[in-house]
Amino acid sequence: MIFNTDTAKKTAELLLQINAIKLNPKNPFTWASGWKSPIYCDNRITLSFPPIRNFIREEFAKHIEKEYGKPDVIAGVATGAIGIGMLVAELMGLPFVYVRPEPKKHGRQNQVEGFLQKGQNVVVVEDLISTGKSSLMAVEALKEAGANVKGMVAIFTYGFDVSVQNFKNAGVRLNTLGNYDTLLDLAVAKKYITEDEHDTLKEWRKTPDTWGQ
Question: Annotated binding site for orotate, which residues?
């Protein structure tokens, strides 16, 4: 679910401008999972552009309070959402923690880093949603640490059916600033891609695990 259409359009425009999202149907990228993909998204690039990172943190802060109420803590998912999550927490005047993909192998063996008390209301900040698996593992880690997870916000989602189902099964509310459909429509309108490339990108999302094989 997106926060609103205007925010989604603005987010798509900014991500395309700085090449945080690259669209290349003719020469697909290979993801770490092995999937072939005509799109690549690296939202960490937004941190290098102050006006854009400020837009993202302000939209997040505004919509978090509107959708979830003001939480006790903001949590970022490592590593992609640590930077933007901390900016959101700073703007909202809230404590910040971050969640590792797995517990540390040494020391205190923490998975949640920072000060978190049992029963505190937490909103999780993520940079990108693909299948949702790693994002929901972070939610689970927070719950195991005693947090009351109100929901998650992310900069962008591919909107895969599997991710929608995963969040539904986990009972976790997800809201995103940008989304795939809005991005494609804007990319055609701004001539980043052709109509044919738009169709290719639409097809990819239906079966991303087998596309291009």
Answer: 130
